[in-house]
Amino acid sequence: MVEYRQQHSEAWLKHFAHRGHPDARPLASGVEGAVYRLGDGTVAKVWTGRPPADFDLTRQVYADIARSRPPFATPEVLDAEQVEGVLVTYERELPGAPIGTDSADGPAPRELPAGVIDAVLEVLRGLAAVPATDAMRRLTVQGDDRPLWQGRQRFSDALADLVERAGRRSGTVLAAHVPDLAKQTDRTVRALRALPDTADTVIHGDLVPPNIHVDGQGHPVAVLDFGFFTTAGDPAFEAAVTAAVWDMYGPHARAHTETLTRVFAAELRYEPETLALYQTAYALTTYDLFSADGSDGHFHWCAGLLNDDA
């Protein structure tokens, strides 16, 4: 699998020491950047991957989420700077520890613990209680070239537009792995446009295990790393994507997706067909975000999901 995490460097440790943080240490890394613990209750994120196109907008979204007081902590930006063209944000360090490892780093157990499922349900319910705001609707999801909601009043129509745009990016590569891709894309777009109106809420869009922190009893105390597919939308989309990406690469990934989809449909009262539709739309809109030539694991995961759906 191709590695797309940003790398830590001694140069940044020296930079933070110069700013008065001699105890700075690498903490985590992801697609968008690398995070350093500064030792004073704050962290620094170096956005060497995909920095927010409009950081002030991202900061406003963080404030909008916090204003709704979800039952767990969320990111809070305290300061920001540009260092040789690279955005660095200083944020409050969030409590707890990751509920699990990313499936790219190690397989999940055969049976998902009931406590883990309960914690994820609590996070989904908490986010579904955060109403959508204008700032959320002005965000651009990763890989796209415009705000997701631009020119649209409904999430399902905005998502259908994105499916069509994403197909024009590297669709010929995906078509080599997914028979009848054009028909599947057309069917997905039509189904999205036919969905009923929903009460829109914040969408995190990347609720993988490292992005949910829990306390010693397994209760969620923080949700981090908004930005990959953060927007305003149908909370059923959040549930659908979470069920699909919780375990993407482990030996029991397919069974875990089926289990979580079934549980979320029952507990949150979402239509299973809607969850399946949103999972297909997610694959059709994110398949080329890490490479345009199909050389990465995420691409093959998306192709596999689409083939299963077909």
UniProtKB/TrEMBL annotation:
Gene3D superfamilies associated with the record: 3.90.1200.10
InterPro entries attached to this UniProt entry: Aminoglycoside_PTrfase (IPR002575), Kinase-like_dom_sf (IPR011009)
Chain ranges passing through the membrane: none
Superkingdom classification of source: Bacteria
Domain Aminoglycoside phosphotransferase: 24-248
Pfam families, alphabetized: APH
Designated name of the protein: Aminoglycoside phosphotransferase domain-containing protein
Species this protein is from: Glycomyces rutgersensis
Classification of source organism: Bacteria, Bacillati, Actinomycetota, Actinomycetes, Glycomycetales
